[in-house]
Amino acid sequence: MKKILVPISNGTEEMEAVIIIDMLRRAGCEVVVAGDGDVVVCAWGTRILPDVMIDDFTDDDVYDAIVLPGGTQGVNHFIANGQLEHIIKRHHKVQGLIGAICAAPLVLHDFGMLPPNSVVTSHPGVAETFAPYTYTLDRVATDGKIVTSRGAGTAFEFALALIRRLVDEKTSLRLASDIVMYE
Fold it and tell me: Does the domain spanning 3-178 belong to CATH 1.10.1040.10?
């Protein structure tokens, strides 16, 4: 069973977080939701109770993927969180899969994890930050071990792309059918 870390913070875009968490769990992954508080108030007021606190992680905690939901305020909190930076950089160093949607690719940029000419996409509101890279308007972009996506409206496609990488194509297709994504 693949183990996935999904950090959330006050201001996280709740649609992205919940769709990512739900779809990965439907695919049979163990998803650990890590917050920066006992209750996280998302961008539109939805309250989520994290499984664990970000500050409680140690170097012994290992994941197959880390997936970052967007939301401008939540992403700013991610960037300012030294413990989360350490977790993500350690994961990146061992070539672990990283997903980032909406404004969350800013975390990868700010943490220096995007090599020159990386293929990346994001929410249009932060696109100018990615001028040094190969920016695409694709709904989901994959470059090596990094998967990025555009926003809440692309969250299902993003989750399915992650499932293809973490589980398999068959599971991704089954789940797309189960939620009547395609007919």
Answer: no
Whether 29 is catalytic = no
152 vs 69: CA distance, rounded Å:
9
Q: Which of 77, 92, 109, 123 is catalytic?
A: 123
For residue 58, name the pLDDT band (cuts at 50, 70, 90).
Answer: confident
Active-site choice (29, 77, 92, 102):
102
**39-69: burial string, b at 16+ Cβ within 10 Å, e else:** ebbbbeeeebebeeebeebeeeeebbbbbbb
Whether the CB-CB separation of 64 and 3 falls below 8 Å is answered with yes
CB 152 within 8 A of CB 17: no
What is the CB neighbour count within 10 angstroms for residue 131? 7
How much of the chain, in percent, has pLDDT values that exceed 90? 96
Domain spans of the chain, in order of start = 3-178
Residues 152, 15 contacting (CB under 8 angstroms): yes
Summarised one tens digit per residue, pLDDT across range 72-112 is: 999 999 999 999 999 999 999 999 999 999 999 999 999 99
With CA atoms as reference, report the closest residue to 88 among 19, 145, 165, 12: 145
Is position 102 annotated as part of the catalytic site?
yes
